[in-house]
Amino acid sequence: MDARSSQLRYASFLTILIAVAFVLTARVIYLYVAAPQRFPINTVKISASYQHISHKKLESLLANYLDSSFFTLPVRRLYNELSSLDWANKVQIERIWPDILKITLIEKIPFATWNKAMLTEEGEIFNEGGELTDFNLPHLSGPKNQEKEVLQVYKKMSKILSIYGLHASDLEWRDNHAWELKLTNGLQLHLGKRELEARVTRFCKAYPAVFAERAEFLASVDLRYPRGMAVQWKK
After folding, report:
1. Superfamily for domain range 43-107
2. Contact (CB, 8 A) for 151 and 172
3. Which fold has domain 112-233?
4. Would you tell me how many other CB atoms lie within 10 Å of the CB of residue 44?
């Protein structure tokens, strides 16, 4: 029993010794590769459009990481910071041996404005509360969390209008669930709450013969009537 106990104690001691040696070796290796003076990042290549995310903004963010070595740069944390930028759509980070960091950043493309934010074609809200820089975008508005519904209706209305050479600039879904559509020529269309596609189609079919020649004098057209429409002219 004593010999066996001694063997067990020796084996345990040897196991601990090997584990400690392994930890110390790993620590020494880490300290060696973590030293930025041995493996510095000498070149940062950035591929970005700089339309809404400025070069200065990226430089300021990257300044917190360039003291890291090539091997110990916290890529995941850097990726998360870049991805959290309002206009960032896709981020790619590459380490190229021996000393190059390559960053590719693709910005979101706004399709429309939504209340006081921007909206992508897929219905993602971004830049909320920020500056609305592109005033040529269609403006959509409506109840909170209903941006995808309003966007879908806008696309349907735009498709119908485009057949007749007309284009929408604004679409509002009001709190009473009524829809208001504004054309790029300033004409306001009152669509009501239902049969939106049928009402817009009816207006478009009548537009060339009834309204086209006097379009500049039109203020609004109420399409909520089942068999007609009410026209308001500019004063």
Report:
1. membrane protein fhac (3.10.20.310)
2. no
3. Rossmann fold (3.40.50)
4. 15
